[in-house]
Amino acid sequence: MQDVWQAPDLRSVVAVVTGASRGVGKGVAIALGSAGATVYVTGRSTKGKPTTEDLPGTVDDTAAAVSQAGGTGIAVRCDHTDEGEIAALFGRVEEGHGRIDLLVNNAWAGYERSTDAKFDAPFWKQPAWRYDLFAASLRGQYVTSQHAARLMVAAKRGLIVSMSYQDGDTYLGQVAYDTCKFAATRQTFGMARELARHGVAAVSLLPGFVRTERVEAAWSALGEGPAAVMHTPQYVGRAVAALMADPDLVRHSGSTLAVGDLAAEYGFTDVDGRQPPAFRLEGLMSLATRMDRLNRVVAAADARTRKEDAA
Fold first, then answer.
1. Is 142 a known active-site residue?
2. pLDDT tens, 233-254?
3. Rounded to two decimals, what is the model's pTM?
4. Which of 63, 138, 207, 302 is the most exposed place for a label (fewest CB within 10 A)?
5. What is the dihedral of CA 24, 276, 227, 293, to 10 degrees?
6. 40, 131, 165, 177: which one is catalytic?
């Protein structure tokens, strides 16, 4: 299949994509760059310094990729659990452009330290720091959205997209994880209600099974089974670009939208020309258990690599 995506014209759009050193955030930023947008790329990993969990990718790399794709990438180191750093980010955006048209809340620290304790252990065996990682990520989305909303309300236009995960009434397999993921969706719903009369939209976006750097590290062990539903981070970015270009965007405000469903609605494909459907959990294995197994595969592969390098 051939990629036939016609990127919308977003050359007038000023966007902030959080947690964009790698993974979904990076894919979203590059897709927006392909549409000509100016993208502030935020995250904690910067060139020349240790990256989060030693995973590849920095805000500098992503910003360069945005510019190479046709947009304008601006790298900003920002820890979205730090209110001072968030305020400084939006001060820079306001000084440089006077507005923000699009915020993509993607920063999420909840998968870090995954091998320190079983991700899918029952709640009474979970360390408190894991709940704190989830809650801090959720709070970061809230504070970041506050700063963006102030500029958007003043301009009477804008879109806030928050990455989440839910699958109807399906329990995600871990109490704190399930609580914070559903809370992220509810948080966006509330924001949409309060922003409605100001011409600003807010939606929750549900990626599917994304082939991120973490998944890439486990690909050989996963095999070809997930290939039919797996998609690239850019597929998520194309969904965001399609939403931003929709003149009737407000009809979606307050909704929870799946990337696969938006692909069918707007007619875009992944970079390989496929159009993977919306991802739904199947079988008895919860999402938390899937993440736990994935993280352990990645950790084992990393241990083998370190051992080989030391030999």
1. no
2. 999 999 999 999 999 999 999 9
3. 0.86
4. 302
5. 50
6. 177
